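Throughout our pipeline, every protein is held as a single compact record rather than as scattered files. The remainder of this section carries one protein's record, kept here as part of the documentation.

===
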Amino acid sequence: MADVECPRCGAMMPTGGVCPLCETPYAVSMASRAAVDDAAQESPLARAWRSGQLALGLAAACQLAAMWLPVMSGVALRQGSEVRLDVSVRPVDLLLGTYPALRGQTTAWLLPGTALFLAQILWSRRTGSAMAASRPLLGPLALAPLVTVVMPLLKLRQHHLNPTPGAAIALVGLASLLCAIAAFRFGDGVPEAAPKRRAPAAHDED
């Protein structure tokens, strides 16, 4: 049986046998080499989706965009002596306390806070192991923004009011789904950083 080059370490090995240098079976080396070649041929967008980075970035963007969309419409509010019958309420309105009659200013911070935290995780985690270590954080972060958009709606319904759910709820729901996807794959296929060379100590030169 003719010798071939080991796909893993480059040593000569028998076809279908075990490499004498790295002791890896030929079939395993070929499968690993094929996986590396397939990953190299992927587009940057496909790699970002496979690693969960794209899903995490989209989740943060959706949460920030939802700040400016209505959580609910058809809300009747009294402002001074005037009664407004068809008010649209956005998360940013809850955050700034635009309508004092509506509670939710405290929980409204969860939406932009979560978006900024996701962006910080995406920016600061650079290696596959660091990304994978962040996965347990992404589950709670996927659910936290839903409190911002669901609680005000539920409170009004408890007072026998029937506001119409707004687009912000759908966008935050999409962000939660994307964040949950990232929680299962964040860091997949991302290489580790190359080890830094150790500076030679003084006694090594003696």
Notes: The first helix runs from residue 26 to 41. The chain is about 50% helix and 10% strand. Residues 194-198 have pLDDT under 50 and may be disordered. The two ends are 50 Å apart (CA to CA).
